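An instance noted here:
***
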Amino acid sequence: MNGGEPTRAERNAMSGALHPDGASHAIARSVDGANILEFPPGRPRHRTTGWISDLSFSPDGTALAFIEHPFRHDDRGFVQALDLASGKLKWKYQAAKLEGIGESSPAVAHGLVYVGDLAGEFHAVDAQTGQALWTHEIRGEVWSSAFVADGKVWLGTRSGILYVFAADREK
């Protein structure tokens, strides 16, 4: 496409992510009161009566991290990782506090998953096991998504503070 009117690609899509190959994508679709995670679109991989948001592929394209919210219209949720070869869930990570993870897309890089939560904590999770490696208490809810560049993890908060962490297994 070279500009012009956008093309409608999917119907009932709630969230999506482009695969690292640049040729395919995943979506979370709302169908008959459920959310269905599809990769590629049309191939269901996970279903919930809650809702699915914030999809993020691993850099090598072998896994897909996403947030599952158990209840509709409730921002609380947990991060899950889907192995794309087997189609099975690899792990589930639940934040310790009640508010849970809700507004921040996971950032996946170098074998780690980084995600902020609504209680004001930032989490580094092992991408293979889903085990917490470290957390850091920050000031304010995390509504933005972290990003990884130049060996650092950058995270903005709703309170207007920008944090920079080393992109490492240890804090």
Summary: The chain is about 0% helix and 45% strand.
